[in-house]
């Protein structure tokens, strides 16, 4: 079988050394078989192994091959749709549980980095940058909302203050979250994979799950092997394809693109982002950026509905970067890549159980670095029989894309056009 390699990203080029991992050959028995070695799968595996379960992971390509090894590296707390939307769609008890968890993912990441000594360039501090007065009002109400759930570390920034942390004319203000921050995402995934193995878990690479036999004793089949397990956790997110048809109807893979500059001079890097915080703006189709440990600017933005790979990523993203930082006009782009995240109509994650023993979490629609770490912990709690927090997610309502799978792309492209227009008009 042909091996699938990492895309040519800055992250793959600067990845920490990794061991060779086996393909699955023959039959294995375990307590939990996890499909997918991104943050959802790895985080679930660590939480389960720490509580004494036997765990095997099958990964279609390599650890962190999907969004977890390609993302902007931004530790952004809360969900892609915020607690006000959750409060409107669920009861107060469930909203309270979800609101209390909104900042937990960032803490889990930091705990794992410290406990397993993961070298992934962790930096504290994330900025939500307001492009318009309307965005600023939104941030003010979001701060109040988060404070109601005990998340009180946030600082609103006026136009003068944000200039002290981002050297750009693009913003009228913002909000600083020191519990946000950034990491080298692929090295976080690789470090978590090493943690899984240090706890006795096994990861099979180049081993796609091609079929899951459901029932009292589920079996996960790969081209050359099978795993019999008491439980299965499906963590393939936007790369899962149609392995579980019930899951694909209510979600859609979308591509988003990232570029990385050549290393900047120390002075230029320091002038752009003096405190080395990461930044995301408040547009619906948002831009996000940060410095790397070797002082490149990583800049992401744009969405391609239906996850087709655009031909010239630099041509799409570079103008966005220059809009925020015209001073980078002569800077060369060394890397450009695309990756897929999974969108749901509500932009809230899809979590649940198929039958008694197949669990899933997917579709966090963007802010997935923290959510996936929380999801792993919550899925592990459910497998241990403590399902209160799992149920809070599982009860979130989800709807199929109007018109079904075939119409998902045009429908959402229309939505994207509408939101781009709204972003441009600042309404
Ligand atoms: C370009 C980009 C930038 C982003 N930037 C940010 C950011 O800055 N901050 C943020 O919070 N979020 C960001 N996100 C979102 C975030 O990266 C994702 O939400 C998160 O990484 C999803 O993790 P996951 O483990 O669920 O899925 P993935 O990381 O996609 O992992 C799924 C894994 O499952 C494997 N798989 C799929 N099907 C099978 C199968 N049948 N058998 C075996 N294995 C299978 C895949 O190969 C893959 O490795 C970004 C996403 C992208 C694409």
TrEMBL record:
Top-rank lineage group of the source organism: Bacteria
Listed InterPro entries: FAD-dep_OxRdtase, FAD/NAD-bd_sf
Keywords: Oxidoreductase
Database matches in Pfam families: DAO (PF01266)
Domain FAD dependent oxidoreductase per the UniProt entry, residue ranges: 31-381
PANTHER family: GAMMA-GLUTAMYLPUTRESCINE OXIDOREDUCTASE, SARCOSINE DEHYDROGENASE-RELATED
Keyword Transit peptide: no
Regions that span the bilayer: none
Protein name: Gamma-glutamylputrescine oxidase
Single GO MF annotation: oxidoreductase activity
GO cellular component: cytoplasm
UniProt KW rRNA-binding keyword: no
Gene3D superfamilies cross-referenced by the UniProt entry: D-Amino Acid Oxidase, subunit A, domain 2 (3.30.9.10), FAD/NAD(P)-binding domain (3.50.50.60)
């Amino acid at each position: 079988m042909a091996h699938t390699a990492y895309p040519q990203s800055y992250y793959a080029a600067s990845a920490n050394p990794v061991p060779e991992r086996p393909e699955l050959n023959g039959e294995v028995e375990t307590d939990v078989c996890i499909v997918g070695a991104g943050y959802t799968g790895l985080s679930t595996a660590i939480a389960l192994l720490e509580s004494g379960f036997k765990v095997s992971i099958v990964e279609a390509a390599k650890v962190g091959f999907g969004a977890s090894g390609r993302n902007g590296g931004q530790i952004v707390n809360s969900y892609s749709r915020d607690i006000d939307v959750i409060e409107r769609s669920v009861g107060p008890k469930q909203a309270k549980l979800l609101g209390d968890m909104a900042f937990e993912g960032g803490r889990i990441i930091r705990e794992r980095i410290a406990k397993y000594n993961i070298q992934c360039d962790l930096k504290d501090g994330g900025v939500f940058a307001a492009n318009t007065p309307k965005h600023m009002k939104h941030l003010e109400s979001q701060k109040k909302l988060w404070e109601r759930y005990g998340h009180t570390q946030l600082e609103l920034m006026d136009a003068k203050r944000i200039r002290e942390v981002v050297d750009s004319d693009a913003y009228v203000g913002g909000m600083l979250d020191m519990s946000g921050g950034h990491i080298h995402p692929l090295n976080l995934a690789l470090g978590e994979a090493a943690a899984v193995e240090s706890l006795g878990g096994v990861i099979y690479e180049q081993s796609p799950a091609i079929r899951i036999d459901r029932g009292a004793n589920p079996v996960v089949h790969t081209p050359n092997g099978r795993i019999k397990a008491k439980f299965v956790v499906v963590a393939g997110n936007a790369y899962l394809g149609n392995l579980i048809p019930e899951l694909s109807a209510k979600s859609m893979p979308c591509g988003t693109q990232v570029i990385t500059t050549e290393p900047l001079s120390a002075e230029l890097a320091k002038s752009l982002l003096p405190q080395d915080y990461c930044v995301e703006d408040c547009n619906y189709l948002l831009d996000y950026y940060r410095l790397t440990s070797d002082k490149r600017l990583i800049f992401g933005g744009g969405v391609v509905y239906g996850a087709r790979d655009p031909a010239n990523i630099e041509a799409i993203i570079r103008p966005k970067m220059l809009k925020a930082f015209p001073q980078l006009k002569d800077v060369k782009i060394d890397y450009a890549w695309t990756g897929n995240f999974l969108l749901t109509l509500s932009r809230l994650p899809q979590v649940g159980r198929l039958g008694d023993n197949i669990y899933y979490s997917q579709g966090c629609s963007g802010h997935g670095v923290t959510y996936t770490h929380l999801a792993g912990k919550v899925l592990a709690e459910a497998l241990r029989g403590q399902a209160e927090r799992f149920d809070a997610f599982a009860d979130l309502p989800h709807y199929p894309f109007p018109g079904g799978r075939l119409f998902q792309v045009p429908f959402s492209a229309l939505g994207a056009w509408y939101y781009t227009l709204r972003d441009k008009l600042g309404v």
